[in-house]
User: What shape does this take?
Amino acid sequence: MTEQLYFVDSERLGKKTLEKKHRLEQEPCSRQNHMEYMEGMECISSDIMQRVLGEMKGYDPEAYTDEDVRKALVHDVCSIEDFKAFLSPAAMPYLEEMAVRAKSETEKHFGNTVYLFTPLYLANYCENYCVYCGFNCYNDIVRKKLSHEEMKKEMEIIARSGIEEILLLTGESQSVSDLSYIGEACRLAAGYFRNVGLEIYPVNTEEYRYLHECGADYVTVFQETYDTDRYEELHLLGRKRVFPYRFDAQERAVMGGMRGVAFSALLGLADFRKDAFASALHVYYLQRKYPQAEYSLSCPRLRPIINNDKVDARDVHERELCQILCAYRLFLPYVGITVSSREQKHFRNGIVKIAATKVSAGVSTGVGDHERKYEGKRVGEAGDEQFEILDDRSLEQMYEDLEQEGLQPVMNDYVYV
Ligand code: SF4
Assistant: This one.
């Protein structure tokens, strides 16, 4: 059963809504089967999910020993077995050696560059009930969707700061933030930025193709957890509840012509070692099937949300996060690794010298909040934030800090010819 601390208090909900919410939380039989597709969801018959889940099932992090880690450390190429050892508790005493190896791999493939981007939340409406998220449909927050004019204004402000890569996000509401609304945002963004990423609800191949034609370059989808039982307990309502449709989203995006795809589990929801293993394996198999695409991994940890400050990443501390990122770098040497503003400044400053290649700057996870953030003023009401951030440095501060660390900040690494 899902732990009670994730559930949001919702004193202002009507009686009927409260009853439905309570039923969803307490009675598994009242929920849609999370492994069955809903109407309109495309099934691409890929074998990657079965392979990843099969490998994950057979992975017992506790079974790995000191000797397994030492053997893995002397191999030039990190095998799946070596990766399992690097992610195990037995590898914790070898963190320093792993970091030295990871740093050398990062420098080999990325030099001393660090890519910068910023997210822009277009809306915070959501039709899903993910119990750990501030945007979930039962959480009582200020909801907002940017109009065309508001989007333009936000993009102008962000572009003026020097940002060249933007990640457009919506909550997952197909009725409020429909495909044409997102397509319009992509067209607008393509006029201001050189790289446009999307983090929206998963869609079918042809819909990804449409968004790519509108100007989107890459797609980010977080699977949240690869543990299907835990996924079932945490995603109680809406299209997101369908695990396999979400799993295949990146593959559909690549089939639809997207240049790149990004992956992650939300660390802290289930066994984080197994989730980290499955996330990287998801990339590994897809990369072999579609070598032309660009791949990246993120490593978000749970953060407190509005109306629930108990939501947190519990057993995933900075040392464990560092272990995961070093293991990712050793297993997938040329894959991008993003560290978001969910993490503290000191952690981000350190990890970009070892394993990470991309960080966000000038971040607001609210809707329509950049005017306040960048220019110190606020017009109209902004929508509430998805989660609390820990590093609120502006682009300028981040740029300076990276240079001081001897790194080279990069605003864009892609040129269309
Ligand atoms: S995690 Fe995404 S889908 Fe789930 S409630 Fe939050 S915004 Fe909606």
In short: The chain has one domain: 4-410.
